[in-house]
Design brief:
The protein is an all-alpha fold. The protein has one domain. It has 6 helices and no strands. α1 crosses α2 and α1 runs parallel beside α6. The longest helix has 31 residues. The radius of gyration is 18 Å and the shape is globular. The relative contact order is 0.15. The model has no long low-confidence stretch (mean pLDDT 85). It binds zinc ion. Zinc ion binds next to α5.
């Protein structure tokens, strides 16, 4: 599975690429809050590590990695944000679902046993036959030398992604000035 680095960068890149006008009245606050929200939502599915750590039961990549949970979680957090920030419910629900969905997508395409995408209806792991991320072997421990290669790969991909989005936004802004 990808580490929180890849997941939070995916949230950040989506936040930079998707429109989110009027998340807050203050422009600076708007962007920092929005980007923080996107990165947090993109990582939150992996908090299932906590009950697994506490109880010793295998929760990881279970219900929090299912489509039903993703939609339910997005519906509730969108409700909180829309009331708190007076933001369109449909818009923030759509954005939250995309941020959360990015987590499922990365995990689906990464090395490992897969994710229980269709819980509570189908209790089995699903994984893409094509692997795009080498993934970390957490079974070897949280700090293991074998994590260096996948983390290095994630950092390289993240820098590339940030560079591509930065270049795209820059050329879009330049085009807007020219028009
Ligand atoms: Zn995950």
């Amino acid at each position: 599975m990808p580490s929180p680095i890849a997941h939070s960068v995916a949230g950040y890149l989506l936040a930079k690429s998707l429109p989110a006008d009027r998340f807050s009245e203050n422009r600076i606050q708007k962007w920092s809050l929005y980007i923080f929200y996107a990165s947090l939502i993109a990582v939150v599915a992996d908090l299932d590590f906590i009950p697994q750590f506490v109880t010793g039961n295998a929760y990881h990549r279970g219900i929090t990695h299912s489509l039903v949970f993703a939609l339910g979680f997005s519906a509730i957090s969108a409700l909180i944000v829309s009331v708190w920030k007076k933001f369109s419910y449909i818009k923030i629900f759509t954005l939250t679902s995309i941020f959360y969905g990015s987590h499922l997508l990365l995990d689906y395409f990464s090395y490992g046993r897969g994710i229980k995408l269709f819980l509570p209806f189908v209790d089995r792991f699903f994984r893409s036959p094509i692997i795009l991320f080498p993934g970390l072997h957490y079974s070897r421990g949280l700090f293991h030398i074998s994590h260096l290669l996948p983390i290095g790969f994630e950092i390289a991909i993240s820098i590339l992604g940030i560079g591509v989005v930065w270049w795209w936004k820059k050329s879009k802004a330049r085009k807007n000035i020219e028009v």
